[in-house]
Design goal:
binds zinc ion, five-stranded mixed β-sheet, zinc ion binding, binds arginine, alpha+beta, Peptidase_M1_pepN_C_sf, EC 3.4.11.2, 875 residues, metallopeptidase activity
Amino acid sequence: MKTEERRVIRLSEYAPYPFRVDSLALAFDLDPAKTRVQATLRLTRTGTAADLELDGEDMTLVSVALDGETLPADRYTAGDGKLVVRGVPDAFTLDVVTEFAPAENTKLEGLYVSDGMFCTQCEAQGFRRITYFPDRPDVMTRYTVTLRADKAAYPVLLSNGNRIEQGDLDGGRHFAVWEDPFNKPSYLFALVAGDLERVQDGFRTRSGRDIELNIWVEHGNGPRCTFAMESLKKAMKWDEDVYGLEYDLDLFNVVAVSAFNMGAMENKSLNIFNAKAILADPDTATDAEYEYVESVVAHEYFHNWTGNRITCRDWFQLSLKEGLTVFRDQQFSADMRSAPVERINQVRSLRGRQFPEDGGPLAHPVRPDSYIEINNFYTATVYDKGAEVIRMMHRLLGAEAYRKGIDLYVERHDGTAATCDDFAAAMADAGGRDLSQFKLWYSQAGTPQLRVTETYEDGVYALTIRQHTDPTPGQPDKRPLHIPLEVGFLDRTGQPLPVRLEGEDTAADSRVLELREAEQTFRFTGLAEKPVPSLNRGFTAPVRLVETPHTDADRALLMAHDPDTFARWEAGQQYAVDLLLKMVAARAAGSNEGPDTAAFVEALGSSAADESLDAAFRAQVLTLPSDDFLAEQMAVIDIDGIHAAREALRRDIARAHGALFRRLRDTHRAAAGPFAPTAEGAGHRALANAALSYLGLDAANAKLALEQYRAADNMTDAMAALRVLNDLDVPERAEALDHFHDRFKGDPLVLDKWFSLQAMSQRPDTLARLKDLMGHPAFSMRNPNRVRALIGVFANANPVRFHAEDGAGYAFLVDRVLELNSLNPQIGARLLQPMGRWRRMEAARKALMTRELDRVLATPDLAPDVYEIASKARA
Ligand code: ARG
Ligand code: ZN
């Protein structure tokens, strides 16, 4: 396909579909080699189009009948992703029969086979690989689904809604009929057929209805579903309590599958999950994975209202459901666990993934205005920045008005396909606020940069804040955004000072400033001394504070005394960023004289030792900003310099606090007690293991790590020990890794951790080892979890080896992307993203990276997914 032939889809070209689909009946004869689908659509014309156009791909069209009469071939054309039936009446029934081979579907979109079971993934445009249909989210209808399959191989037959009939058929086959009483778009259709174990439970809703809950897994995995089931029930309760939203059917099914492109999918009443997001037990899941399961289960459940009952008009509105649902799952996690620690983790991931996206060639607005392949827009920007946008509205309106806004949004749009503007309008109306400038957050890409300066004269303290957003692709000029920024003041001893704006009577400990202009000055009175400002408390806005009036002493003061827990952590991070960048610069200049790190190291130790603080929080304090976040602050990224500086600072910290770390490791390991997947236990383990990671910088502590690995009664402690050994050149490393392999070789999901450890290793032989591991019997390019564990981790979490000077890391990645181009282009396109960083590298790496991108672009038959990322990354 030539470049100019690739279709760019634009928001500005949105037009409603000219027909209404009154109902859809689907009948499947399931067979891995040849599945036959009969679709019966009842249609009514609502627009002016003479012809009916349906989407469809990669299928054999067997027949088309209109009102019961098989159509002659000259009445329709099929090809180029469309079926066009010419000259249709105003209201009619269309029967379409298609065939395809699910076993050969390696893209994992539409209907495919995963470990011997049939399953579907239709978001965003997989339904068109099952039958011809207007595969767009604003076409909603009622589905009745008949499934027929071999009874012995596929005893369980599931689809959306309620099962209304089932029975046996000739030839060892059986059937089930499912009816979904709710209108839905095609992307929420799902079916599952397989031999599965059921874990059953129930939930009584606040209005007293009893809901049957099932989690379906591969036989033997039942015991690993307990935590997911508990999470589901908590999520159902929480959504009633906090959002007033109750489940609307009598049955809720969740199925875990091993081959899945994403985390999970919210199909109406039949959520399908990557097994990784369901299965958890102490032997196989870390605390972080337990937390992941809890949040993904909640996220998909929350979609039942924010996504399913109210869906998206078109895919440009993806953040309408995803940003909102991520914000909801973040609120849920904050309520289940430590709110500040949750916020810290969100901000880490925003900075590690979204900020780089927003500052690179793939930058796009939360509501994109064009795409070639929509699957490329399931991004950190749409999800996580989208959640920040909702969070800012929550902040600007306050919790109560926000909830009124949600109620109004549901009242206005339930049962329909809505837009981001509809959501903002409900919030503006409920809150009595003008959000017109605020809505720029939806349409303008890029991370705003704030520069803050201060003056203090005659008892008046003034903060001048300038905002600026760099150009992004297609958006050379940026306008000032409406930014909520929470600030507080401290005195020199760390006591809070009142925040009182000039001309106002009320003083508060903290207040949200609203920035609207390129430059604004806020004047505060009633201050007997110049305060130390605490800025962007709780990370009220997803911005970068590139200039603040803080001195090192201010940062140490905020680290120790800011009443906002998040801001205490943030002060430590900013302090560390400053020092690390100075260390990188010194190293680049060939100087041995780096900055003095002693005061920082001291402050870090005091926080870590402060028993009045939450253990989970102290573990966060001990974790320095990531290589990626540091890279974001440099005009030209010095990969090796960043890594060396970070390691050097870690060594300084380890040297200064050896005794403290030994104590923390022992006492918090003891405090964690026997394993239970609670937030509290996880906090103790996190702190003990943060301490271990510092101790482990000294090879003499390899034994300690090996002992911990051996004694661990849970995966968190085992992995922490392995991570320490992984970078050391000691015999204990191979001993532990081999032991892990032997213990888990039958469980590919656990073996992924073993693959990832090796992909992350700093050792010089890492790439050679990866190439060997691709031949491991458990490895397969057809399973996205394996690909992410080995190749994704290498490209995203091992900067030093991935960016090796000879370019071998880039060539390896691109070889894999080209393999995936035909196998699973969605995964291939994702893997390619780190290559977009070439612009910020020095000349030699720039040349190597662009050569590899050019190699992708010169490849014939590039899938649109891969083409879009490669061409934008190269531009
Ligand atoms: N809606 C799903 C979720 O956020 C994600 C599914 C995306 N799948 C895809 N192929 N793009 O929970
Ligand atoms: Zn989602």
